[in-house]
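Assess the record.
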Amino acid sequence: MDPKEVLEYIAKNIVDDPAAVAVEQTEGDGSVILRLSVAPEDMGKVIGRAGRTARAIRDVMRAAGTRAGISTVVEIVG
């Protein structure tokens, strides 16, 4: 499973409106930037209290990227 699919799976299971989840992937030199977009009313669920959920998502994605042999960065955009 590539990191983009992993991020889509995680996000769709957190939010109330899974149809609004979109992940844009930009590749660089050995790294991948993933931009996660969700519905405005779901931003709080993705970020979580004091950013804990967002931090956990980034940690999981960093591990998934390491497993795939790439550096993974997650940006949450509104």
About this structure: The chain has a mean pLDDT of 93. The longest strand covers residues 31-37. Residues 52-68 form the longest helix (17 residues).
